[in-house]
Amino acid sequence: MIRHLRNIILFLRNFYIGIPSKFLSPGLVLGTNYGKKFLINKEIDGSNIISAGVGRDISWDEELAKKFEVNICLIDPTPISNNYIYEKFEGKEYIKLPNSSTVFFYNFALWKEDSIVTLYPSQEFEHNDFSIHNLQKTKNTEIIKTQSFRVISIMKKLDWNQIDIIKLDIEGAALEVLKDMFKCNIYPKQILIEIDELFQKSFVE
């Protein structure tokens, strides 16, 4: 029980939603209007950051990497995102910025286990949204079979001892990823999360 309470407290301490940035000073808003996120702490040089579900907008990640000396791991299993990042990175698995920031990209899914998973498209397929839980109950045959990895597995792959910031926009899989992360005693200083399933009819049925 104590462990569960501690997990909840650590989660809520870093979970901000719908709060105007002027009330969260001295933080920093980065990214375009579509992809902007709030950073609660400007003292993040040397941080390890996971950004999962990047789609075709890495404005937040790019500004982070330019303003601070950080290591960022971008994750997205979708073909559209893979093509977008491939062009951005000129075919490289990672890029090194002049300020020593390093940005990696992996074209797999972030999940609670290392396995092969099935991802289901949204009803509006062109939006590039795929869900491991088939949130919209689509019958579209354009599913994706892809490799998935846990947070701890990615940390081992990158030789990281800790995660300082994690951003999750992974179409209904975020809570299970966080639960697995907490089980491994991984507690980032900031968690940015989009809980997509709250907006789906299937969530309350």
Considering the chains and any ligands shown, give keywords for the structure.
205 residues, single chain, four-stranded mixed sheet, alpha/beta, 24% strand, disordered C terminus, globular
Largest sheet: 6 strands, mixed
Question: Helical proportion?
Answer: 10-25%
Please tell me the overall pLDDT.
83
- Given the helix and strand composition, which structural class is it? alpha/beta
Strand order of the largest sheet: 5-6-4-3-11-12
C-alpha Rg, in Å? 17 Å
Q: Could you spell the SSE succession in H and E letters?
A: HEEEHEHEEEEEEHEHE
Number of helical segments? 5
Q: Outline, from the CA principal axes?
A: globular
Q: Name the beta content range.
A: 15-25%
> How many angstroms does the end-to-end distance come to?
28 Å
Number of strands: 12
Low-confidence stretches: 12-19, 197-205
Task: Describe it.
The protein is of the alpha/beta class and 205 residues long. The protein is 24% helix and 24% strand. The chain has 5 helices and 12 strands. It has helices at 2-13, 59-67, 79-88, 151-158, 174-183, and strands at 28-30, 37-39, 48-52, 71-75, 94-96, 102-106, 109-110, 115-121, 130-131, 144-149, 165-168, 190-193. A 6-stranded mixed beta sheet has the order 5-6-4-3-11-12, with no helix packed on it. Strands 7-10-8-9 form a 4-stranded mixed beta sheet. Strand 1 and strand 2 form a beta hairpin. The longest helix has 12 residues, at 2-13.
